[in-house]
Amino acid sequence: MGGCVSSRDVDVEIDGKLLRLKRVIATGGFSQIYLAEEASNNEKFAIKKILCHGQDEIKCVRREIELLTRFAHLPHILPFLGVAEGRSVDPTFAEFCMVFPFCRRGSLQEDLANRRQTKQFVERKVLLEFFRQISEAIEYLHSAKPAIAHRDLKPGNLMFHQDFYTLQLIDFGSAMECPLIISDALTSRKMLDEAGQYCTMPYRAPELFTCEVGMEIDESVDIWVFIFNFFEEGKGEDWD
């Protein structure tokens, strides 16, 4: 599961495989996603590259890696193939390259955008199957001890596996253990900052906009988004 990043900054070695970064295919708030190819056979992978500047950022990435290791072997969660870490003499700086299968079919968000342009909307039976798969993925998280809330459950974080009928959840950088009690103003401010950093605004549960003192934040933040997505993805479909 471990590996290293080469000094050339274009190669990642993991479990004896040399992966060469080809190009950036997506950019997030704190990371870049690269298309990579194995040097020996050109097999394609996706690499999430994160540069950390400080112990807090390093701690967050290690937490994400821990969650990926726990959950990414389950159905409808994208497999996690390992991580390579770049070393530095400065202990507050680190580079992480997380390796995943390359999803050539793209995300549900991309599919929905294409469907809106062509007016070819998701059929009801397909939409219901999507939500069965999504509910199965979040059930794994919510039934953990302690429960895990994903907090950024959006179409862009749902990738098609090998076809257009199987979805897999990605991106655990936003995930948190719950429940969490907002006990004071400092905790409230911290949660608001986290929500601003990790939770995409249009898909953010209402309580994450306020984080009032005395409030309990739990896995229900995902349920709100789950229902929101259901109606969002069904737009334009005849449900009579």
TrEMBL record:
It comes from the Eukaryota. Keywords: ATP-binding, Kinase, Nucleotide-binding, Serine/threonine-protein kinase, Transferase. Coiled coil: none annotated. It catalyses: L-seryl-[protein] + ATP = O-phospho-L-seryl-[protein] + ADP + H(+); L-threonyl-[protein] + ATP = O-phospho-L-threonyl-[protein] + ADP + H(+). GO terms for cellular component: Golgi apparatus. Gene3D superfamilies: Transferase(Phosphotransferase) domain 1. Its EC number is 2.7.11.1. The keyword Cell wall biogenesis/degradation does not apply. InterPro entries: Kinase-like_dom_sf (IPR011009), Prot_kinase_dom (IPR000719), Ser/Thr-specific_kinases (IPR052239), Ser/Thr_kinase_AS (IPR008271). Residues 19-240 form the Protein kinase domain. SMART domains: S_TKc. GO terms for molecular function: ATP binding; protein serine/threonine kinase activity. PANTHER family: SERINE/THREONINE-PROTEIN KINASE 16 (PTHR45998), SERINE_THREONINE-PROTEIN KINASE 16 (PTHR45998:SF2). This is non-specific serine/threonine protein kinase. It comes from Meloidogyne incognita. The lineage of its organism: Eukaryota, Metazoa, Ecdysozoa, Nematoda, Chromadorea.
